[in-house]
Design goal:
7 strands, alpha/beta, Glycerol-3-phosphate (1)-acyltransferase, 267 residues, 8 helices
């Protein structure tokens, strides 16, 4: 069952356009393929990229939340450029509303499913939109930290992602990024050199990990947030784990490292 949704019109820059979230919104269009090819070409011209993890375990259908750490403006292009083909379907994003204030943004962004949200407070419309995206069986990328980490380490997030996962039952795919902050540091232009690793963890459902603890909604939200962030930390090099540097036995995974100097087959 699919549902088409649209948001009410708003005046002025950053007006939220009609949003398509039905089953057809999973299709990878030629426009998206071209943008992803461009992203890979540009990033590879600046740095080396290595993809790690079990890409064969990524769910190919049904709702999916891709939860990643956030280091740089390069995170989105890297995820889109390398994971879209592995997912086999379009990725949906919740982006800051300010992006729609740039010239031609209202034309270029909707076709790649970048949906504007208000970062100044709890955007109830954005949460409901995220629910509809997942209810239609689509892929949604979220950065639980909400903004780029100023230190490179994982920051403590709000509970929005945990609540979304609990309410929708959508599986979560933890993704760890390392090195993108050196490619595109905050407040500067992209730089040549360095290396990037993107590591994909095992998909999981929060309710399955919580078990009977999920019955207490208030406690479950905090526990779910901790579980999600620990799973992301598990696919990050130790230096990037930040507030989640202490090991978590329930989310144990072989610690990744930054790519070696020699090119890898994934480059």
């Amino acid at each position: 069952m699919s549902a088409e949704a649209s948001e009410p019109a708003r005046k002025g820059p950053g007006r939220r356009p009609a949003i398509e979230v039905d089953a057809a919104a999973s299709r990878i269009t030629p426009y998206i393929r071209a943008l992803n090819l461009t992203a890979r070409t540009v990033v590879r011209s600046l740095t080396r990229v290595r993809i790690e993890g079990r890409l064969d375990r990524i769910p190919q259908e049904g709702p999916l939340i891709v939860a990643a750490n956030h280091l740089s403006n390069a995170d989105g292009p890297v995820i889109a450029g390398w994971l879209t083909s592995a997912l086999g379907r379009r990725i949906h994003w919740l982006g800051k509303r300010e992006m729609y204030g740039f010239p031609l943004a209202s034309i270029a962004l909707p076709p790649v499913s970048i949906h504007p949200v208000d970062r100044e407070g709890a955007d109830v419309e954005a949460f409901r939109l995220a629910e509809r995206i997942l209810a239609a069986g689509n892929v949604l990328v979220l950065f639980p930290e909400g903004t780029r980490s100023p230190t490179g380490g994982l920051q403590r997030p709000r509970d929005g992602l945990a609540l979304l996962a609990l309410r929708t039952g959508a599986p979560i795919l933890p993704v760890g990024l390392a090195g993108t902050e050196r490619l595109w540091p905050r407040g500067t232009f992209p730089r040549v050199g360095g290396r990037i690793v993107l590591r994909v963890g095992e998909p999981f459902r929060v309710a399955d990990v919580l078990g009977t603890a999920a019955r207490d909604r208030r406690a479950a939200k905090g526990l779910a947030t901790e579980i999600i962030m620990r799973r992301i930390a598990a696919v990050l090099p130790p230096a990037y784990r930040g507030a989640y540097a202490e090991p978590d036995e329930g989310a144990a995974d072989e610690a990744p490292t930054l790519p070696p100097e020699e090119p890898s087959p994934e480059d």
